[in-house]
Write a structure and sequence with these properties.
This protein has helices spanning 10-19, 38-45, 57-61, 75-83, 88-98, 106-129, 145-158, 171-182, 195-205, 214-223, 232-251, 266-270, 281-288, 321-324, 328-337, 347-356, 368-377, 387-391, 397-428, and strands at 49-53, 68-72, 132-136, 163-168, 187-190, 209-213, 256-260, 276-279. Helix 7 (145-158) packs across helix 8 (171-182) and helix 8 (171-182) packs across helix 16 (347-356). The chain has 429 residues and is α/β, with parallel strands linked by helices.
Amino acid sequence: MTTIIQAGSQLSQRVHEFVRRDFSPTFATRRAQFKSDPTWRRFRDVGTELWLDSGNANAIRSVWTQEFSSLTTNNTLLNEEIQTGRYDTLIREAAKLLEGFPELSEREQLLEIAFILNATHALHLVEEFDACVSVEEHTDLAHDVERSVEYARRYHAICPERFYVKIPLTAAGVLATRRARNEGIPVNHTLGFSARQNYVVTRIAQPNFVNVFLGRLNSLVADNGLGSGEYVGEKTTLASQTAIRELRDTRGCTTRQIGASFRTWEQYLNLAGIDVITAPPKVAEQLLARKGQLPPIESQTGEDHRPGLKKDVDPARVRLGTLWDIEDKLIACMDALEQEDIDSLTPGGLLDFFGAHDCPDLLVRWTREQAQKSASEGKIPQLGNWRDLLQEGKAGLDSLMNLAGLNSFTADQKEMDNHICQIWKSVKA
């Protein structure tokens, strides 16, 4: 049986003190030390908050100005830092710390070391850039409500002033986000790929942020030979932004929309005016390299970009509408769900509810074989392998992309875990 390490326990407190031992924050005092830039200031003027999608301090430093406020890290980005070896000494120290808790299984110790690494790296970023930082939970927690909430509490306690906790879009993740938000824990709900996913998550859980990984959507169309893929992700992001703003206006939600997974500098211009843009530093540098050549930076909210599809591609056949449409039956499903005791639902119960209300393709109960097939494909599904599920309405493009995204993060998490284990075993030897 897996131990749930509770916030406030002796172990949790020891880890908390260990992580914060050298943390010397200067909240709200460092921003003036960074330069300002008129290009980035124009994005702020049209209502877009600017983040960077990186855990590499050198790369961040090359772009960071007063106009940037936050950083997003994830399993992939943290793994890149771990593989450099910069945290090998910390891994050894953490392993020594955990020797005092022999009741933990090896897997539980590994989760603790991963937590320590994630929190420590994020604190370094907070300290240097006075930024808010999104810290992502271990992928082992993606389908575990209780442990996901407990780790969210612990991340929040490490740095309540600057940490956002990233919880992925799964049935368990939605319920965990709802519980975390009810406790006032800031949540960046990640791995979103459609307007309808973000609409559902916002109505159920009201996270601080929802995402569209738009660059991967453009790649989905291009890699499957359906067209250039241009503007597919942009159209989806703007549709999601519209849905989120309507929920803010009509229901008092405070959720904000993030455009993520940027691939080109043009996407900054195409999505100016959305709530938040987070992009890799190299994409931000590409935009800055064109200073003086850029068209006016104006809000694009309300625009309806035409996606780059071949003339012979029927959007309905591949269910592209699952990316940007919110159907009446889904709204009815959510209306019915709000009449239920949502807090008593299990992940399986939530899946059953969507299935019983004619929306089985949004939160899908994947089989082991389907999950393995997705993992073998990588970040971008091969749509020919999923044609029947799509046509029968048992999966949407967004749910396929969500599964692929989680599998991709899980692979990177496994690589990071393997590195931890190699260092850890040297301590035990």
